[in-house]
Fold:
Amino acid sequence: MMSLTINYDTFITLLLEAVSELSIVYAEHIDDYDELIEHVFIGEVTRFSERLYAGDPNSVVLKRLLDFIGCAFAADDEKLKELISVSFLENLSRDGDSFEGIRVLLSAKLSEELSKYD
Structure:
């Protein structure tokens, strides 16, 4: 079996493999839109991550999700970086404890990118 490189075209597939807990969010997205709309779906992933943090700031699922997004952001794909920046980072709610809590869990590159929105 050949492993896929993380890029814009493979990101969602690999994300769903890495974080199978997102399958429900993905299924609801497809039900709502009848297709994958990447930017909208990643916004939904942002809200999923915030719910995970609210339920358990030490969630292993949240850590796995943020680690994968950090790896993807480090890939040499500007379209993928834009997707993560605009649809994940920019959508993080600035209200409540989750913002600072999630910020601390981000990779250095994601944290640096997030600071552009402050």
Q: What stands out?
A: Residues 11-115 form one domain. The radius of gyration is 14 Å.
